[in-house]
Amino acid sequence: MPGSPPAPFARLRAVTALFLLAALLFGAAPATAATYVPISGAGSTWSQNALDQWRANVKQYGMTVNYNGTGSSDGRNQFRNGTVDYAVSEIPYGVKDSGVVDSAPSRKYAYMPIVAGGTSFMYNLTIGGKRVTNLRLSGPVIAKIFTGQIKLWNDPAIKADNPALKNALPARQVVPVVRSDGSGTTAQLTTWMSKQYPSLWDDYCRRAGRSTPCGTTSNYPVIPGSRMVSQAGSNGVSGYVAQAGNVGTITYVEYSYAVYTTGFPVAKVLNKAGYYTEPTAKNVAVALLKARINEDSSSPAYLTQILDDVYNDSDPRAYPLSSYSYMIIPTKLESNFNNQKGKTLGAFAYYFLCQGQQHVDNLGYSPLPRNLVEAGLKQVRRIPGVDVQSIDIKSCHNPTFSTDGTNTLANTAPYPPACDKQGQSQCATGTGGAKTPTNVAGGSNNSGSSGGTGGSGTGTTGTTGAGSSGPSSGTGKGSGGASGTPTAGAGATVDPDTGQVVGTDGAAAGDTGVDAFAQPVSTSRSISSGSRTALMAMAGVLLLAVTVGPPLLNRRLKRGKS
Predict the structure, then answer these.
(1) pLDDT in tens, 282-334
(2) To the nearest whole number, what is the mean pLDDT of the chain?
(3) Are strands 86-89 and 39-43 parallel, antiparallel or unpaired?
(4) Residues 6 or more apart from 512 whose CB is under 8 A from it?
(5) Which of 30, 180, 323, 428 has CA atoms 20 to 30 A from the CA of 549?
(6) What are phi and psi for residue 158, nearest 5 degrees?
(7) Spatial distance between the Cα atoms of 471 and 451, rounded to a whole number of angstroms
């Protein structure tokens, strides 16, 4: 046929087109991807930011490591039921929670430390329209906030912790945001409260209908009708607090969610040395020198932690709520776990115990110390199907390692400045993911407009005066009050940020019990519009190829025969 290619060439082109079409339709993967089979896990959101980074990093080696941050309790349950290959949790099996013991699984397992960090107190607070970034809280104040005893941000106990803010703290309601799901972070907080402030914690549990002594719980008890807000997951509680409208909220969450995820401040917590500290990688490393690790390799609880001495560490640099997170690994071929999965899980574990620790401080975590890395590497060998590696631990470049065996990160941790010591001074430096210093000039009971005394829109926050503050936009009067400003009755105050009259119980006048600023947050991840467009275009091309390809191929083959 004139102008037609030779038959063999036409057939070659047709076959090549079919291979290309198959590659598009079935997603041909690089040869290296066949080395590992996918594995799945579930559990902690406290350590999820680290896990997600490691999972992304090992894709280059052909590993697919799936993980769902469903909370530590659910992760332990799924591992016990055999529905996941591994789990991650901050607390081990066997803990008695609300009178029920979290029983160990029948399948064989072991614990392996994966990362260290601090449970922080992320908050959303403004004065005169400017964000507070240098809040300080002592242990009793934190316990009273999360047991409903402190209701306003200008409570005398909060003022005592914050001498530089005491005359400017607003009469705004404190809204604690707690986890609605079974959570290792909740377990960490409630363990700390039960050990340090048992009377406060037990009294709250009684009011919530729990038996006492309350002890550790993964499910935070909420008293019906209280102002506590419950959200699922670390993304849920931190995302709720980070919403612009949710001023006055505070939550407990791993430091990473303030530093890496939301860019919000955290409260510096008073330690036993009388200094307020935040959970930086170095402060956590210092504190965890006092962690007691179960070193009995024959015990089911081998490598788990006891943190009582961490809570009471007298080092001025220590952060009291520092801890480790653990992976629960299978040690026997059962519950759909096979050698191929063991190979993947083992390779992933080798990665995060060595290279993965190098930069976790950038994510808001603290790297594991040498003794736990070495112990973890030994635990990896217990995974069925693992390709055992002889890791030269010096090649890990872990920031905690040293030639003499001491913890370099702890040794180089700076001592806190004098303004972080409990007393009459207070550092203005920002914390967490909000490093901008706090610049608030306090008044008696209330602050001036963020637009300055004349409301011109310039100047610094706050002026001293007895009147109500002007609006944060700078359009009203900054001092002396404006006409029509609400007045407080007996036993009530005026919130300087909102202008609401707030009663002595922390409720606004005429309050219905629902916070006007409390808006739910969605933590689901949606596909971006750009990605959606690209996917739709690809789908269109594939549909066209499937529809038009066969007739064209048939016509080509017929031409080749003619």
Answers:
(1) 999 999 999 999 999 999 999 999 999 999 999 999 999 999 999 999 999 99
(2) 82
(3) parallel
(4) none
(5) 30
(6) -70, -40
(7) 8
What's the Cα-to-Cα distance from 149 to each of 140, 198, 228, 321, 413, rounded to whole Å?
10, 14, 12, 21, 35
* Torsion angle in degrees (nearest 10) through CA of 514, 519, 520, 526: 170
Is the pLDDT reported for residue 6 higher than 90? no
Q: According to DSSP H, which parts of 316-460 are helical?
A: 339-353, 370-380, 408-411
| CA–CA gap between residue 483 and residue 468 (Å, rounded) | 10
The Cα 134–Cα 268 span in angstroms is 7
Q: Let me know if 69 is exposed, middle or buried by CB neighbors in 10 A (0-12, 13-18, 19+).
A: buried
Predicted confidence (pLDDT) per residue in 157-185, tens digit:
999 999 999 999 999 999 999 999 999 99
CA dihedral 199, 203, 205, 211 (to 10 degrees): 90
Strands 175-179 and 229-231: parallel
User: How far apart, in whole angstroms, are the C-alpha atoms of residue 368 and residue 410?
Assistant: 11
**331-346: average pLDDT:** 97
First to last CA, the chain: 7
Determine the length of the chain: 562
Q: Which residues pair with 40 in a beta bridge?
A: 66
CA dist., res. 541 & res. 532, Å (int): 14
What's the rounded Cα separation, in Å, for the pair 371 and 393?
11
What is the DSSP secondary structure assignment for residue 283, as one 8-state letter? H
Alpha helices in 58-197 (DSSP H): 72-81, 139-145, 156-161, 184-196
Residue 209 class from Cβ within 10 Å (0-12 exposed, 13-18 middle, 19+ buried)? exposed
Beta carbons within 10 angstroms of residue 315's beta carbon = 19
115 backbone dihedrals φ, ψ, rounded to 5°: -165, 155
Q: Which of 32-36, 307-311, 360-364, 410-414 has the lowest mean pLDDT?
A: 32-36
The whole-angstrom distance between residue 485's C-alpha and the CA centroid of its chain comes to 40
Q: Quick one: tokens of 291? A: 């962690």
497 backbone dihedrals φ, ψ, rounded to 5°? -85, -35
What is the model's pTM?
Answer: 0.77
Residue 439: per-residue pLDDT: 86
pLDDT of residue 99: 83
In this prediction, residue 494 has a pLDDT band, given cuts at 50, 70 and 90, of low
Q: Are 264 and 189 in contact (CB under 8 A)?
A: no
Give pLDDT, residue 550.
58
Structure token pair of residue 18? 């079919």
Band the pLDDT of 541: cuts 50, 70, 90.
Answer: low
Tokens 């467009």 found at? 533
Q: What is the DSSP string of 237-266?
A: HHHHHHSTT-TTEEEEEETHIIIIII---B
Beta carbons within 10 angstroms of residue 382's beta carbon: 17
Please, is 352 exposed, middle or buried when counting C-beta atoms within 10 Å of its C-beta (0-12, 13-18, 19+)? buried
